[in-house]
Write a structure and sequence with these properties.
The structure holds 2 protein chains of 2 kinds. Chain A is an alpha+beta fold. Chain A has a single domain (2-121), classed as Glutaredoxin (3-Layer(aba) Sandwich), CATH 3.40.30.10. Chain A has helices at residues 2-8, 31-36, 46-59, 74-79, 108-121; strands at 13-18, 66-68, 85-89, 95-98, 124-125, 128-129. A two-stranded parallel sheet of chain A has the order 1-2. Chain A has a two-stranded antiparallel sheet with strand order 3-4. The two termini of chain A are 29 Å apart. The model of chain A has no long low-confidence stretch (mean pLDDT 87). By secondary structure, chain B is mainly α. Chain B has a domain at 3-74. Chain B has a two-stranded antiparallel sheet with strand order 1-2. In chain B, α1 (3-10) packs antiparallel against α4, α2 (15-32) packs across α3 and α3 (36-52) runs antiparallel to α4 (60-74). The model of chain B has no long low-confidence stretch (mean pLDDT 85). Classes of the chains: A alpha+beta, B mainly alpha.
Protein backbone atom coordinates (compact mmCIF):
# COMPACT_ATOMS: atom_id res chain seq x y z
CA UNK A 1 0.00 0.00 0.00
CA UNK A 2 2.85 2.36 0.83
CA UNK A 3 4.27 1.74 -2.66
CA UNK A 4 0.99 2.75 -4.29
CA UNK A 5 0.91 5.84 -2.07
CA UNK A 6 4.48 6.80 -3.00
CA UNK A 7 3.75 6.35 -6.69
CA UNK A 8 0.59 8.45 -6.87
CA UNK A 9 0.61 10.79 -3.87
CA UNK A 10 1.46 13.80 -6.04
CA UNK A 11 -1.76 13.33 -8.03
CA UNK A 12 -4.15 11.60 -5.61
CA UNK A 13 -5.13 12.17 -1.94
CA UNK A 14 -4.62 9.06 0.13
CA UNK A 15 -6.20 8.25 3.47
CA UNK A 16 -6.33 5.24 5.70
CA UNK A 17 -9.60 5.36 7.62
CA UNK A 18 -9.18 3.53 10.90
CA UNK A 19 -12.42 1.74 11.80
CA UNK A 20 -13.59 -0.70 14.49
CA UNK A 21 -11.34 -3.68 15.22
CA UNK A 22 -12.05 -6.66 12.97
CA UNK A 23 -10.95 -9.28 15.48
CA UNK A 24 -10.82 -7.82 18.97
CA UNK A 25 -9.96 -9.93 22.00
CA UNK A 26 -13.54 -9.50 23.21
CA UNK A 27 -15.01 -10.54 19.85
CA UNK A 28 -14.27 -13.03 17.10
CA UNK A 29 -10.61 -13.81 17.73
CA UNK A 30 -8.32 -15.36 15.11
CA UNK A 31 -5.33 -17.68 15.56
CA UNK A 32 -3.06 -15.44 13.49
CA UNK A 33 -3.62 -12.47 15.79
CA UNK A 34 -2.87 -14.62 18.83
CA UNK A 35 0.34 -15.92 17.22
CA UNK A 36 1.44 -12.44 16.26
CA UNK A 37 0.38 -10.87 19.55
CA UNK A 38 -1.93 -8.36 17.88
CA UNK A 39 -4.34 -8.30 20.77
CA UNK A 40 -6.67 -5.37 21.30
CA UNK A 41 -10.17 -5.18 22.71
CA UNK A 42 -12.88 -3.35 20.79
CA UNK A 43 -12.41 0.39 21.33
CA UNK A 44 -14.65 1.79 24.05
CA UNK A 45 -13.79 5.41 23.40
CA UNK A 46 -12.52 7.62 20.61
CA UNK A 47 -9.26 8.08 22.55
CA UNK A 48 -8.77 4.33 22.74
CA UNK A 49 -9.37 4.04 19.01
CA UNK A 50 -6.78 6.77 18.40
CA UNK A 51 -4.25 4.97 20.59
CA UNK A 52 -4.65 1.63 18.82
CA UNK A 53 -4.48 3.36 15.43
CA UNK A 54 -1.26 5.04 16.54
CA UNK A 55 0.24 1.71 17.62
CA UNK A 56 -0.85 0.13 14.34
CA UNK A 57 0.67 2.92 12.30
CA UNK A 58 4.01 2.58 14.08
CA UNK A 59 4.13 -1.23 14.04
CA UNK A 60 3.13 -1.53 10.39
CA UNK A 61 5.08 1.57 9.25
CA UNK A 62 2.02 3.14 7.67
CA UNK A 63 3.14 6.25 5.84
CA UNK A 64 -0.33 7.29 4.69
CA UNK A 65 -2.34 9.93 6.55
CA UNK A 66 -4.73 8.20 8.95
CA UNK A 67 -8.26 9.39 9.71
CA UNK A 68 -10.10 8.09 12.73
CA UNK A 69 -13.68 6.89 12.36
CA UNK A 70 -16.09 8.24 14.95
CA UNK A 71 -17.45 5.85 17.58
CA UNK A 72 -20.87 5.69 15.91
CA UNK A 73 -19.21 3.70 13.09
CA UNK A 74 -21.42 5.54 10.61
CA UNK A 75 -18.78 5.55 7.86
CA UNK A 76 -18.16 1.88 8.38
CA UNK A 77 -21.84 1.21 7.93
CA UNK A 78 -22.22 3.45 4.87
CA UNK A 79 -19.17 2.06 3.11
CA UNK A 80 -19.25 -1.55 4.33
CA UNK A 81 -15.72 -0.77 5.42
CA UNK A 82 -14.68 -3.31 8.08
CA UNK A 83 -12.72 -5.50 8.23
CA UNK A 84 -10.92 -3.88 5.30
CA UNK A 85 -11.91 -2.31 2.04
CA UNK A 86 -10.52 -0.07 -0.70
CA UNK A 87 -12.25 2.73 -2.60
CA UNK A 88 -11.30 5.34 -5.11
CA UNK A 89 -13.36 8.52 -5.42
CA UNK A 90 -12.78 10.38 -8.66
CA UNK A 91 -12.08 14.09 -8.89
CA UNK A 92 -15.74 14.45 -9.92
CA UNK A 93 -16.72 13.22 -6.45
CA UNK A 94 -18.15 9.93 -7.69
CA UNK A 95 -16.96 6.47 -6.78
CA UNK A 96 -14.47 5.28 -9.41
CA UNK A 97 -13.58 2.02 -7.69
CA UNK A 98 -15.60 0.04 -5.16
CA UNK A 99 -13.28 -2.61 -3.81
CA UNK A 100 -14.55 -5.95 -2.62
CA UNK A 101 -15.19 -6.63 1.06
CA UNK A 102 -12.19 -7.97 2.91
CA UNK A 103 -10.72 -10.36 3.62
CA UNK A 104 -11.95 -12.49 0.71
CA UNK A 105 -12.37 -9.82 -1.96
CA UNK A 106 -9.75 -7.31 -0.83
CA UNK A 107 -7.49 -6.65 -3.80
CA UNK A 108 -4.68 -4.10 -3.67
CA UNK A 109 -3.73 -4.71 -7.33
CA UNK A 110 -7.24 -3.83 -8.51
CA UNK A 111 -7.12 -0.63 -6.47
CA UNK A 112 -3.77 0.36 -7.92
CA UNK A 113 -5.00 -0.38 -11.46
CA UNK A 114 -8.05 1.81 -10.85
CA UNK A 115 -5.87 4.64 -9.51
CA UNK A 116 -3.54 4.37 -12.51
CA UNK A 117 -6.50 4.49 -14.87
CA UNK A 118 -8.01 7.45 -13.03
CA UNK A 119 -4.91 9.64 -13.17
CA UNK A 120 -4.28 8.79 -16.80
CA UNK A 121 -7.67 10.16 -17.87
CA UNK A 122 -7.90 13.19 -15.56
CA UNK A 123 -5.37 15.87 -16.44
CA UNK A 124 -4.45 18.05 -13.49
CA UNK A 125 -3.26 21.59 -13.22
CA UNK A 126 -1.72 23.60 -10.43
CA UNK A 127 -5.00 25.13 -9.33
CA UNK A 128 -7.27 22.18 -9.79
CA UNK A 129 -8.63 19.95 -12.47
CA UNK A 130 -9.66 20.58 -16.00
CA UNK A 131 -13.34 19.83 -16.40
CA UNK B 1 -25.40 -5.34 6.38
CA UNK B 2 -23.22 -4.63 9.39
CA UNK B 3 -19.95 -6.45 9.93
CA UNK B 4 -21.27 -7.79 13.24
CA UNK B 5 -24.21 -9.39 11.44
CA UNK B 6 -21.93 -11.09 8.93
CA UNK B 7 -19.56 -12.19 11.70
CA UNK B 8 -22.34 -13.77 13.72
CA UNK B 9 -23.11 -16.09 10.80
CA UNK B 10 -19.55 -16.77 9.63
CA UNK B 11 -17.97 -17.26 13.06
CA UNK B 12 -20.34 -20.16 13.83
CA UNK B 13 -18.91 -22.33 11.04
CA UNK B 14 -16.94 -25.50 11.74
CA UNK B 15 -13.53 -26.15 10.18
CA UNK B 16 -15.15 -28.33 7.50
CA UNK B 17 -17.73 -25.65 6.77
CA UNK B 18 -14.97 -23.11 6.34
CA UNK B 19 -13.26 -25.33 3.78
CA UNK B 20 -16.51 -25.56 1.80
CA UNK B 21 -16.86 -21.80 2.00
CA UNK B 22 -13.30 -21.21 0.82
CA UNK B 23 -13.93 -23.37 -2.27
CA UNK B 24 -16.84 -21.23 -3.37
CA UNK B 25 -14.96 -18.00 -2.58
CA UNK B 26 -12.01 -19.24 -4.66
CA UNK B 27 -14.34 -19.93 -7.60
CA UNK B 28 -15.84 -16.46 -7.30
CA UNK B 29 -12.42 -14.81 -7.21
CA UNK B 30 -11.32 -16.76 -10.23
CA UNK B 31 -14.43 -15.65 -12.12
CA UNK B 32 -13.71 -12.02 -11.25
CA UNK B 33 -10.29 -12.30 -12.79
CA UNK B 34 -8.81 -9.37 -10.94
CA UNK B 35 -10.18 -6.66 -13.22
CA UNK B 36 -11.48 -3.47 -11.58
CA UNK B 37 -14.39 -3.32 -14.03
CA UNK B 38 -15.50 -6.82 -13.10
CA UNK B 39 -15.41 -5.93 -9.44
CA UNK B 40 -17.57 -2.91 -10.12
CA UNK B 41 -20.65 -4.64 -11.40
CA UNK B 42 -20.40 -7.87 -13.31
CA UNK B 43 -18.32 -9.61 -10.67
CA UNK B 44 -21.07 -9.27 -8.11
CA UNK B 45 -23.66 -10.89 -10.34
CA UNK B 46 -21.22 -13.63 -11.17
CA UNK B 47 -20.67 -14.30 -7.47
CA UNK B 48 -24.39 -14.82 -6.95
CA UNK B 49 -24.67 -16.96 -10.05
CA UNK B 50 -21.82 -19.13 -8.89
CA UNK B 51 -23.46 -19.62 -5.53
CA UNK B 52 -26.87 -20.33 -7.07
CA UNK B 53 -25.47 -22.84 -9.52
CA UNK B 54 -22.99 -24.51 -7.18
CA UNK B 55 -22.90 -28.23 -7.98
CA UNK B 56 -21.32 -29.53 -4.79
CA UNK B 57 -23.31 -30.01 -1.64
CA UNK B 58 -23.32 -27.01 0.67
CA UNK B 59 -24.67 -27.24 4.21
CA UNK B 60 -27.27 -24.57 5.02
CA UNK B 61 -24.95 -22.77 7.43
CA UNK B 62 -22.27 -22.46 4.70
CA UNK B 63 -24.83 -21.13 2.24
CA UNK B 64 -25.96 -18.58 4.85
CA UNK B 65 -22.37 -17.54 5.52
CA UNK B 66 -21.70 -17.08 1.81
CA UNK B 67 -24.92 -15.15 1.40
CA UNK B 68 -23.90 -12.85 4.28
CA UNK B 69 -20.44 -12.44 2.74
CA UNK B 70 -21.93 -11.40 -0.60
CA UNK B 71 -24.43 -9.01 0.97
CA UNK B 72 -21.61 -7.41 2.94
CA UNK B 73 -19.55 -7.26 -0.25
CA UNK B 74 -22.38 -5.39 -2.01
CA UNK B 75 -22.62 -2.84 0.80
CA UNK B 76 -21.43 0.68 0.10
CA UNK B 77 -21.58 3.22 -2.73
CA UNK B 78 -21.12 1.74 -6.19
CA UNK B 79 -19.10 3.06 -9.12
CA UNK B 80 -20.73 6.28 -10.33
CA UNK B 81 -22.46 7.00 -7.00
CA UNK B 82 -21.67 9.99 -4.82
CA UNK B 83 -20.42 8.37 -1.61
CA UNK B 84 -21.55 9.42 1.86
CA UNK B 85 -19.54 12.45 2.90
CA UNK B 86 -17.45 12.40 6.06
CA UNK B 87 -15.49 14.79 8.17
CA UNK B 88 -12.88 12.97 10.25
CA UNK B 89 -9.96 14.00 12.40
CA UNK B 90 -6.50 13.17 11.20
CA UNK B 91 -4.43 11.12 13.63
CA UNK B 92 -1.64 13.04 15.30
CA UNK B 93 -2.89 16.44 14.27
CA UNK B 94 -5.71 18.89 14.83
CA UNK B 95 -6.62 18.77 11.16
CA UNK B 96 -10.08 17.62 10.02
CA UNK B 97 -10.55 16.13 6.60
CA UNK B 98 -13.82 16.40 4.68
CA UNK B 99 -14.15 14.09 1.69
CA UNK B 100 -16.29 16.48 -0.36
CA UNK B 101 -13.60 19.18 -0.11
CA UNK B 102 -11.65 17.32 -2.80
CA UNK B 103 -14.52 17.27 -5.28
CA UNK B 104 -13.50 19.08 -8.45
CA UNK B 105 -9.88 19.00 -7.31
CA UNK B 106 -8.30 15.61 -6.82
CA UNK B 107 -9.17 11.92 -6.72
CA UNK B 108 -9.23 10.41 -3.23
CA UNK B 109 -8.02 6.88 -2.54
CA UNK B 110 -9.41 5.37 0.66
CA UNK B 111 -8.22 2.33 2.56
CA UNK B 112 -10.46 1.27 5.43
CA UNK B 113 -9.18 -1.10 8.05
CA UNK B 114 -8.01 -1.90 11.56
CA UNK B 115 -4.97 -3.54 13.16
CA UNK B 116 -6.65 -6.80 14.08
Amino acid sequence: MTEVYQRYRDRVEFFVVYVQEAHPTDGWQTDSNIQEGVLFRQHRSYEEREEVAQTCSIDLHIGLPILIEEMDNAIDEAYGAAPERLYLVGADGRVAYHGGAGPHFFDLDEWEAAIGQCVSVTPHTEDGLAT
Amino acid sequence: MLKSQRDSVVSRLSTGDRQDMRQVIAAIKEARGGSPDMAAAEGRITAREILAGWQGELPDQVRSALEATLVRDETGPKVGDFPADFNLKRLGSKEWVRLSDFRGKRPVALAFGSYT
